[in-house]
Structure formats: C-alpha cells, structure tokens
Amino acid sequence: MMDSAPNSPPSKSEEKRFNKDEVTSFIKETVENTLGDAEYSHSKVPALNNTIIETILKKMKDDNKNYKYVVTCVILQRTGAGFYAGSSVIWDKNNDDSAGYRHETKSMYAVVNVFGLSI
C-alpha cells in the first residue's frame, strides 16, 4: 500500500467543516463588541458596518481556508419602519451552510449573515 504524499491536500472528510454554532457565536461576539448599546449615528454606520464585516471575514479565512465566505451586514435605525430581507442559494447541502445573528439596541438593529461555500 502506498502512503499519500505529505503535502497532498486533505480529503473532504479531513477538511474542517463549517460549524454553524461556532460561526453564530463569533458573529454575536463581533457585533456586540462593535456596537454594544451604541446610539444610531448615520455618520458612524459605514465604519461600524465595515468593522463587523472585515472582522468576521478575517476570522473565517484564518480559521478555515476550505471555504469561500460571503458576509452581509445591515444596520438600521430603529424607527418603527418595516424591514424584510430574503435570500436563496443553490449549493452543496452536505458541505455549505450559513449562520446569522440579529442585534438590537434602543436605537438600531443589526442583521449579519455569513455564508460558507466549500471550495
């Protein structure tokens, strides 16, 4: 029997899989650390949004290079207006997955989703 080369890529069964619970926990931690109980400020939202997205993307890439990631973040002022968002995917249900988290303060909502697509 021939041994595989030491530098051969891991098989699908050996690769780290997308762990929805871990990703959700990290999203929650990132959003709460970034936003906390902050008041909505239109001028600060772009920077806050970027910080959340970039922090999550870096963590996902560092933890698992077997996936491509899509991170969305919507920050809304809490005014009583309605909001609806939807998404649809065609993917490998055995390897791809997503996680999401919604954060609320007295003056804003943040909705973050992470999609992990196996390579």
Automatic annotation (TrEMBL):
InterPro entries, alphabetized: Tctex-1-like, Tctex-1-like_sf
Gene Ontology annotations for the cellular component aspect, listed alphabetically: cytoplasm; cytoplasmic dynein complex
Region feature (Disordered): 1-20
Gene3D superfamilies: Tctex-1 (3.30.1140.40)
Any one biological process term the GO annotation gives: microtubule-based movement
Residue stretches spanning the membrane: none
One GO MF term attached to the UniProt entry: dynein intermediate chain binding
Classification via Pfam families: Tctex-1
Name the UniProt record assigns to this protein: Dynein light chain
Organism (species): Mucor saturninus
